[in-house]
Amino acid sequence: MIKNALRNIGCILIGTHTEKEYREISNLSDRDGLQTFIKLRLNDLLLHAYQHTRYYHEVFDQIGIVQGDNVEISRIHEIPLLTKEIIRQRHEDLISDDFKNRGWFYNTSGGSTGEPVRLIQDKQFQRWAKATNNYYYKNILNVDEPIVKKVIVWGSERDLFTGTIGAKAKITNWLTNTITLNSFRMTPDNIEQYINTINSYKPDLIRGYAGSLYEICRYAEKNNLEIYSPRVLVSAAETLSDEMRDQIERVFGRKLYNFYGSREVSNLAGECEDGLMHSFTFWNYQELLDNHNCPVKQGEEGKVVVTNLFNYSMPLIRYEIGDMAVLGPERCSCGNVLPTFEKITGRITDHFILKNGATVPAEFFIHLLGVVCNAGEIKQFQVIQEDYDRIRILVVMGAGLTEEYKKDVESKIKVAVGSDCKITWDFVDGIPKTPTGKYLYTKSLVRG
């Protein structure tokens, strides 16, 4: 009770108390109410962007979608997509002229696909992001996330190294019953220590990078170690393959819920009990588009395009975030009103692009090499597409690979990618993670 009171007082003092926002989105109980909410928020955001940013004033004038105090929302598809390159080139023109009145702060994208993008966000953004997070855990997973006992397996230099060693972060962790485990330090000794921490703390909730949870589970299974099964188990921040999901669920003995978000726009979608990813459209208006920038149909894969409805300091409108997903049904059998994705299939750079425009998903390679990884024959791997017909496989050796197995892998890759593909094996001491602590199993240097 004391912790709850102190946490609420702290949130009120710094302007991040979210009871009002959470109540507003929890009341969106039917499709008509949700659509009305989105349209009003889109109109307000686009009008603000037109009136307060140079970039959107130019773009909207060219299209002619602003009429007085209203925006023709039905024509939102005519607004050109916003890319990371445009943000870098027109950074100052994307910032609202009133941002200094909004409790603003800097944030950056993770940078796993190249140079990070620097953004401005604000307290309104922060409150709605927090309210959305609370909505997912309370309304979809039925757990009170801010107060339950949590173990978080994370690895951002900014969030972890400069955060948890400070007094402010230590107090926050205490108030929120959180233990953070560093995914940068995934040595066998560290992993065993993490398993001991989980077993002794007995958390209600465990959340972590998909790859980090996968590595912990592989180690536990290989060494016959039992691991405590929390009430709720959530994978976040990395693409979750079927291979990884199977391993994590088998070891923890618990269904794994996939959560999708990003630094640029925070929470995007979260999985429900029935296995679909509910898109938080009251917070981020989302589109799935094909290669011609047309909406995909249910069951089809498309690139994720996002408009955050509450960052007025630096509006991101129709932002091409760099991820791919498969569109799910409008209605889910779980009863939640939010539309769905069937699954998040990965970053565009996870997919290997062929000369004919087809793609090979990262999961193909994860499944192909994950078998020998789980058997201990190799410790880690990364598959890199250097060109359309050139692939390099980095391997950290375990017990060792036979020439027969390598030839089998090469033949299967050539079936998927093309018979003229040249495959090179590099045996290395370690595979570096991204600056935010993520471990990429695949990486394409080809841009379609």
Q: Could you characterize what this model shows?
A:
This protein is α/β, with parallel strands linked by helices and 448 residues long. It has two domains: 1-148 and 231-343, Rossmann fold (3-Layer(aba) Sandwich), CATH 3.40.50; 352-444, GMP Synthetase, Chain A, domain 3. The chain has helices at 2-14, 19-26, 31-52, 54-63, 84-89, 91-94, 123-140, 157-161, 167-175, 188-201, 210-222, 242-252, 362-374, 403-417; strands at 66-67, 70-71, 105-108, 118-121, 150-154, 178-182, 205-209, 232-236, 256-262, 266-271, 277-279, 284-289, 301-308, 319-327, 340-347, 352-353, 359-360, 378-387, 390-397, 422-427, 442-444. An eleven-stranded mixed beta sheet has the order 6-5-7-8-9-10-11-15-14-13-12, with helices on both faces. A hairpin with a 3-residue loop joins strand 9 (256-262) and strand 10. The termini are far apart. The model is unreliable at 156-165 (pLDDT under 50).
Features of this protein?
single chain, 448 residues, alpha/beta, Rossmann fold, GMP Synthetase, Chain A, domain 3, 4-stranded mixed beta sheet, 14 helices, 25% strand
List strands and helices in order, with pairings.
Elements (H helix, E strand, L loop, with lengths): L1 H13 L4 H8 L4 H22 L1 H10 L2 E2 L2 E2 L12 H6 L1 H4 L10 E4 L9 E4 L1 H18 L9 E5 L2 H5 L5 H9 L2 E5 L5 H14 L3 E5 H13 L9 E5 L5 H11 L3 E7 L3 E6 L5 E3 L4 E6 L11 E8 L10 E9 L12 E8 L4 E2 L5 E2 L1 H13 L3 E10 L2 E8 L5 H15 L4 E6 L14 E3 L4
Parallel strand pairs: 5-6, 5-7, 7-8, 8-9, 18-21, 19-20
Antiparallel strand pairs: 1-2, 3-4, 9-10, 10-11, 11-15, 12-13, 13-14, 14-15, 16-17, 18-19
